[in-house]
Give the backbone structure.
Amino acid sequence: MKRIIIAAMFAAIGAGCAGAQPVPASRLATDAQIDAAQAAPVEGFAKEGRWNEPFAPFTIAGNLHYVGTATVSAFLITTPDGHVLIDGVLAQSVPQIIGNIKALGFDIADVKYLLNTHAHIDHAGGLAGLQRASGAQMLASAADKPFLEAGAIDHGPSQGMRFPPVRVDRLIGDGDVIALGGAALTAHLTPGHSPGCTSWSLPVKAADGTQRQAFLHCSATVAGQSLVPEAYPGMVAAFRGTFAKVKGIRADIFLANHDNFFALADKRRRQIAGDANAFVNPDELQGFNSRMEAQFEGDLKQQAAKR
């Protein structure tokens, strides 16, 4: 297992792409690109799915906080030495995420690392704006890096939906650990939904002082993508490999990239009502994995029958 220690030094990597405005070497998108994307109206299924609808930020457990929207997740892990932010939702969500972080008493400028679950617009769209606001380094898997740096993915439901490109400063491999200020996040490559889909786990202290293991699942849905033929080479094997891998993972707190997968609103209501361990359920990850595997096999069979 490789251990990544976040140091105080963040070197500029590479040169910015050509454009109307110069950009720092650590960024690919210009200020104009980021500003235009943030100001653009939320339309289509992004609007229908309430991807940018506000949701009050809160602490899930210990130093793990929810700072996303009503239906698309973003998570903040705080430490005395700086913070880690996972996912950026839409470009239009950047002001909301920054405001959510501030509402919890933290500062976007103290975010040292940006992480991504996968390179679809509803999770990667805001990364460039958040990188600009924080100066943080961006970490992602090798398979999703080209899509993040292109600002678009070439297959699936969000194919052709462009977002401000974000430079990936470091690549993450399976089992890599990011250590910062006493926190330790482990990367789990779980491809299928995207070629480089990356899930994350970390120990957190629950409200009762018990040490718990949290697991943020990148995604395990087909989401309308073509399995027959495969949207990208090796997709079917990737999905099956991920289902097998997750069967060996245990977690007390299951989190996901969209609210409906982990009953965000219901658990938050229970937490507000006094259930301090509303997000604790050691059976939830495996239940989710089993359901997603069954749905995948059903989708595969249905698509194959139409060929």
User: Anything to note?
Assistant: The two ends are 43 Å apart (CA to CA). The chain has a mean pLDDT of 91.
